[in-house]
Amino acid sequence: xxxxxxxCGPASRRRRLLPAVIGSVLAFVGAIALAxxxxxxxxxxxxAPSTTALVIGGGSSPSTTSTSSPPxxxxxxxxTTEATDETEAVPLxxxxxxxxxxxxxxxxxxxxxxxxxxxxxxxxVTGSSDDNPTIAVQFREPFExxxxxxxxxxxxxxNPTARRMRSSMIVTDGDLTSRVEIGDGxxxxxxxxxxxxxxxxxxxxxxxxxxVEAPAGGALWxxxxxxxxxxxxxxxxxxxxxGRSSDGKVASSPFGRVATADGGPSxxxxxxxxxxxxxxxxxxxxxxxTTPTATELLGRPVTSATDVIVIAPDFADDAAxxxxxxxxxxxxxxxxxxxxxxxxEDRSDASQTWIVEGLPADPSAPGRVVFDLSAVLDAxxxxxxxAGPALGLRREFVLSDGANVxxxxxxxxxxxxxxxxxxxxxxPPISSVAGAETTSSSSTPSWLTPALIAAGVxxxxxxxxxxxxxxxxxxxxxxxxxxxxxAAEVEEQRRTREHRAVGADGEPLPTGELPPxxxxxxxxxxxxxxxxxxxxxxxxxxxxxxxxxxxxDLQSARPDDAAPAIDAPIxxxxxxxxxxPAPVTAAEPAVTPAEPAADREPPAAPPRAPSGGDRRFAAxxxxxxxxxxxxxxxDDDQTGGGQADGPA
Length: 648
Hints:
25% helix; 23% strand; 648 residues; 16-stranded antiparallel β-sheet; single chain; 7-stranded antiparallel β-sheet
């Protein structure tokens, strides 16, 4: 019954599922609405992600990937112009001390130069702008500004082999001025000035550097010019100096300084190939590389490659004295070198329990190396606190001609790693060290709790919606089964009522349904046997001059057989007819009357003539058809049309 099943059709189910769908949508909308608030708490410690352009080989090849500093734009120029109107000097950070002045610091290796050329460290002043940060240049010794010659301190950003931007503090006759220029190193054109720099006799200068206008390259370095003297710092990763990271990993510099085989300076600058990155997660030091170690640099084969994890316990002496974990990518050896002592000592014990996961079978292949920070610090005799230690990554290469290429490190404190690192499920759990409880608590982002609460509420609402949906579907299925059973029962009753046999008076016959009649083409109908309701006495039949012909006699007749001799009128009684005998219509005999059938033996069948037997059989067949037709009409009148499949 299709009209009943439509009650549980797809449209009805859609109407029932609509509240569940609306509930799920509202749950997710609520979670999304809370997400900006939660994520906004992270903006103070995490800046936009960036990438560093790296080109294999040397020279001034263009960058193959986008830099973290966008090209100059009109709105950026406007901001710089407005900054020119500011009269207040850039705030000067506190110099010296053992604590790190910033969470990321680029330490300059000692060169033995005298002040005012002895550079110590470079870092971003905390709280300054990301687009126009204040960069502090720390010198190793205090000094007064020179008056006998022009003195210039410049912070450069870009590509040291191509275009770069430089922001300078220029001292002429004791007067401080600022200048921002862009060029290729040989010539520069001046850009919009920035606020005047500041200087402290303790040996600290602070300059505003509009990195938003810097060309591609991704490097930051410092140049100091004093008369005929020149001091150049190593090249550092701009992102690392600014503390910009989306996943709490620091990389070495995208450019390397080159020294000759005898240790002298070289005019070459190496563009570094992609290398590993360093992070600290769950008190694990993880050095991970996604590319094989380079086998060629500056057009020469690489004979040795080493990744150096630099560990500075504090900022004393501008973090010049450090310990190192040296991972040799050529030989596969790992060494813990203590540079805090004089001379440096090898702390690599035989057990090397501080190594959690070593190099793969091929040390130059991509992969990762994991160290236990607690065990490393114990081996070095260093105590961890909230401000330190700081770790960075340096890469060293030796070329076939003996030249050395170094990509220097930027140190990041453990507190910076804790605030920015993404917890990796693959990082092995490491036992905590002294002060690790404070670090662990700070490693949980402040936005995580509200985000988890929102996700939990959304999950609960979704689960409730699913439960309601399943229960309603089950109810629909049960209702459909009940309606289907009721429809089948009604249909069965209707079918039984239509096919039930009734008598002449319209009442159902006691025998119930009549059995179907089977008819075979070319033969007489086969009537099922039943108990006769009309009993015919043979004596009465003979007295009336009738001959009884049975159904078997009629069924045994075939067109090819001789017609039976019939001496008297034929009377056929229907077993299902009424108790009253049916009127008998006498038919004219087709043959000459003979003796009664009971007193004579059947004569032998005469030879079949070409046409006589056929004519007699045709006459008999015609009479039988007429009798059968009359019997069918009589049966219809007596049963009242109750037999739907035809006359019985």
